[in-house]
Design a protein that fits this description.
InterPro entries: Spore_YtfJ (IPR014229). It comes from Syntrophaceticus schinkii. This protein has two helices and two strands. A hairpin with a 2-residue loop joins strand 1 and strand 2. The protein is rod-shaped and about 90 Å long.
Length: 79
């Protein structure tokens, strides 16, 4: 008579791991009405410039509109 154990049927190793590692890519930074990704590696200066570009363009547009309004003389009433 041969005894068959359940562990022999399912070939369970009982261990874990398998050579898997976790490496962080970056961090999410949540601020006032903004969420930014800060990478762990790469070029942080370039990433920062890309993050700031939309805000910078908006500020430049507002400044140009204000300058244009200052240069435009007020309209005189038509009589």
């Amino acid at each position: 008579m041969t005894a068959i154990l359940i562990r022999d049927l399912y070939h369970l190793g009982g261990g874990s791991g398998g050579g898997v590692s976790v490496r962080p890519v970056g961090f999410l930074v949540v601020g006032q009405n903004t969420v930014r990704m800060l990478p762990v590696d790469g070029n942080p200066v370039a990433e920062r410039l890309i993050d700031l570009a939309p805000n910078l363009l908006e500020r430049l547009q507002v400044m140009m509109q204000q300058k244009q309004q200052q240069e435009t003389p007020p309209e005189s009433p038509v009589i």
